[in-house]
Amino acid sequence: MSSIPIGLLILLSLLWFVAFWIIGGVIFATIGLVRFLxxxxxxxxxxxxxxxLAAAIGAAWTGIAAAQMPGPRACMVKNAVxxxxxxxxxxxxxxxxxxxxxxxxxxxxxxxxAIGIILLFISRTxxxxxxxxxxx
Length: 136
Fold this sequence. Notes:
The protein has four helices and no strands. By secondary structure, the protein is mainly alpha-helical.
């Protein structure tokens, strides 16, 4: 297996980061509203952003590594993208290894959702103490 092109890894990581961060953020905002959880939003947002970035890099690296397996690799060699710049490789990467790249992204997104649920519980704030009149 050859080395992973850094430019392609960065481009694909940014693509997955934006997708994971937006979709995951909407999902957890909805969970926070529906479940009426008192969550420290600053802590959750910061941690979720870092984990979204880590999951995006993992998804990009895993997808590109899976695309370099013999089956997709033969397709890419056939389409003459072996030593092309990464801007030409990205569309052909999706054409030759669509399933590998999207499967890696899907698995990492599921991992991010599991981490997000843990972060919700870590970021919970205690109930406000009641005053003498029983108000919050």
